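Hey team,

Filing this mostly as a record. A colleague (T.K.) asked me to run one chain through the structure pipeline before their review meeting, and I want the input and output archived in the tracker in case anyone asks later how it was produced. No errors, nothing strange. Just documentation.

Input sequence:
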Amino acid sequence: QVLFVESGGGSVQPGESLTLSCVASGMVFSNFGMGWYRQAPGKSRETVATITSIGSPSVGNSVKGRFTISRDNAKNTVYLQMNNLSPEDTAVYYCNYAYRRPLGPWGQGTQVTVSS
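Output structure:
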């Protein structure tokens, strides 16, 4: 059974940084592309960043230059380094497969709140 467990969220002020982690289990992690997704209140879920199974990253235009996605296959973990956070980044962040349909089950996510 595939399981994604996200952590690392919190409440920060604009301009600060956070690093999110997602540990995957129940799958051969190194075989799959992974992604970070977010859902803000009243909005649909959007793709933030993706990384291929061999580590080639891609980030969305809204976070380009501020967010970095990476992975550690030995730890079954994908990371999202978020710098220069703004209130528009406030959302629940989730990880899941990328480049694959259907996606796996959604975890509980980790809340990121950016406010002054």
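Quick notes for T.K.: The chain has a mean pLDDT of 97. The first strand starts at residue 3 and ends at 7.
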